[in-house]
Design a protein that fits this description.
By secondary structure, the protein is α+β, with helices and mostly antiparallel strands. It has a single domain, classed as Cyclic Phosphodiesterase, Chain: A (Alpha-Beta Complex). Helix content is 29%, strand content 37%. The protein is built from four helices and nine strands. The strands form two sheets. A five-stranded antiparallel β-sheet has the order 2-7-4-5-6, sandwiched between helices. It has a four-stranded antiparallel β-sheet with strand order 3-1-8-9, covered by helices on one side. β4 and β5 form a beta hairpin. The two termini are 29 Å apart.
Length: 173
């Protein structure tokens, strides 16, 4: 079992439906997990109890984060043959980075992969063909319809057998 922290943005239903329609065509994880920001990537280095307690302590006092997703970008995965299309927040970018950095302290400090830059994002496409991801990004960017919302919760989740299970929801206050 791997443990992670995710945050599911609160956005308009029409924007959520649009993201899910794109993901249904281009993201193999669409049936596994809803659109999200990953704040702590999968780790099996800690007990569930220690991981949850650490997340609670680090999130304590964190204010909700306003986000605006105004552009899509294409990135080649450094760990696989896939290329991805990411929705990267304009508003909220810094606050999500700070929360990510805060979570990767204490017991998680050794889990941080410094060779891979952290870019807060929502994945909307993954493909072995980079041109597919480029077309998806171009479609979003031509749309010129920023998606606005909030991050109000951090979910501690487990990932086992291609299933994401929420273990605890931690409210931002």
């Amino acid at each position: 079992m791997a443990l992670l922290t995710l945050s599911y943005p609160i956005i308009a239903q029409s924007d959520h439906d649009w993201i899910q329609a794109i993901r249904a065509q281009h993201d193999p994880q669409v049936e596994i997990v809803a659109p999200h920001f990953t704040l702590v990537f999968p780790t099996s280095s800690h007990t569930q109890e220690a991981f949850v307690e650490h997340a609670r302590a680090q999130v304590q006092g964190q204010q909700p984060i306003a986000i605006t997703l105004a552009r899509a970008t294409v990135l080649k995965d450094q760990l696989s043959p896939y290329t991805h299309t990411f929705l990267v927040p304009d508003q909220g970018f810094s606050d999500l980075n700070k929360l990510h950095d805060k979570l990767y302290t204490g017991i998680l400090a050794k889990d941080l992969q410094l060779d891979i830059p952290f870019i807060p994002h929502i994945t909307i496409a993954s493909s072995l063909d980079p041109q597919v991801c480029k077309r998806v990004a171009d479609e979003f960017n031509r749309r010129n319809h920023p998606i606005c919302g909030f991050i109000r919760l951090v979910d501690v989740v487990s990932f086992t057998d291609q299933r994401v299970t929420t273990l605890e929801k931690i409210a931002l206050k």
